[in-house]
Amino acid sequence: MIIFILVESIMVLYPKHDLDTKCDYIIVLGALVNKNKISQSLKERLDSCVEYLYLTHDNPKIIVSGGQGRGENISEASAMKSYLLSKGIDEKNIIMEDKSRTTKENFCFSKKIIEGDSHKKIENLNVKVITTDFHTLRSKIISKRVGYANTTFYTSSSNGALFILNYTREFFALICNIIFNC
């Protein structure tokens, strides 16, 4: 119980809204698409991306990262790109990574895209990750393991009604990741 409380405290307190660090790339991590429609969680991540761009006036490349899962008629990346275009984001700034099925794959496949696009190693670039607040700590650990040196976050907030469920589920996913690198 002590470990659970300690880990949960770290997850809740982990930095989630970095506006100070300029970024070369943004990675928006995928979430559920229902047939062709983005889920509320994914919409909130994409709105956080738009908000971040508005607040910082940065003009980085944006990688929308997520493949096509069961019950999805299109890839998460395709749905995310369409949503960002509807919000006025310039298409030339959006890069689709549409093969990943896990957070680890999001980072691995995006890393290949970034290094190919920028012709620089990932450890020499600043990458802003857009995800949901409960997912930040595990995303940081995974990104470090696959070679990202400079990641910061700008997250959406958990749905209030699902806050406890999301953070509890994420505790077990984090422990699995630490022990089994899954």
From TrEMBL:
Q: Where is the DUF218 domain positioned along the sequence?
A: 24-154
- Going by the entry's taxonomy, the superkingdom of the source organism is recorded as Bacteria
Q: Which Pfam families match?
A: DUF218
* InterPro entries membership: Cell_Envelope_Assoc (IPR051599), DUF218 (IPR003848), Rossmann-like_a/b/a_fold (IPR014729)
Q: Which CDD domains match?
A: YdcF-like (cd06259)
Q: Where do the coiled-coil regions begin and end?
A: none
Q: Which residues form the signal peptide?
A: none
Q: What is this protein called?
A: YdcF family protein
